[in-house]
Amino acid sequence: RKCLFHDELQDEFYDLYSYSACIVRCRINTVKSLCKCTPYNFPYVSKRHPVCTIDHLRCLNKYKEKLFHLFPKDVINTEGLEAELQNALYCAECLPDCEMIRHYSKYSKIPLVYVANQHKEYSNFFFRDLNMSGKCLLSIYQATTDGVLNRLDIVMYWFEVVSEYHFDVPQ
Predict the structure, then answer these.
(1) Which of 22, 27, 90, 145 is the most exposed place for a label (fewest CB within 10 A)?
(2) How confident is the model at residue 34 (pLDDT cuts 50, 70, 90)?
């Protein structure tokens, strides 16, 4: 199947598995292994490894590229990718989610100078006393209260396929 549902591995992931939670755990374990501390912005999960302080900064900086990049787990031929494998996080234990929520996006753009000059009602509220040259405004919002949930599921196991279909062997 090569994916996990949210209710699998409950003991390891506090009742809710997700790919991103697994990557976070992998990242924490890598930092603990390399720098002997837990980054302050991650959940504090170990008494053996203190929260990273300024004393750990040199080590964290040394491995920042490794902690930032994720090497794909399903690469078969790594020939020529030795440096990438060495300088990236490799989390072989993390499988994708079997359930994914898909969010759709759209964008539009309009020059802010146009809004400030043509739509004074917005200008007074949003752009009061602001120099708009060289500026941009980004608005991100959830347009609806729902999303599409895609679920991967096994329809038939391999042994069911073999047992369901009769193969007539000519004699």
Answers:
(1) 145
(2) very high
In a domain, 134, yes or no: no
Is position 123 within any domain? Answer: no
Domain of residue 78: give its range. Answer: 1-98
For residue range 7-29, what is the model confidence (pLDDT) as tens digits? 776 666 666 777 888 888 888 88
- Would the pLDDT of 166 be above 80? no
- Number of structural domains the chain divides into: 1
Residues 76, 47 contacting (CB under 8 angstroms):
no
Q: Name residue, tokens 């120099």.
A: 131
- The Cα–Cα gap between 99 and 96 comes to 9
Residues 100-156: tens digit of each pLDDT:
766 677 777 777 777 667 766 666 666 667 777 777 777 777 766 656 655 555 555
Hey, what are 122's tokens? 């917005």
- For the chain, the 3-state helix, strand and coil shares in percent, each to the nearest 5, are 35, 10, 60
Residue 84 sits in a domain of what CATH number? Answer: 1.10.287.820
Separation between Cα atoms, residue 124 and residue 127, nearest integer Å? 6
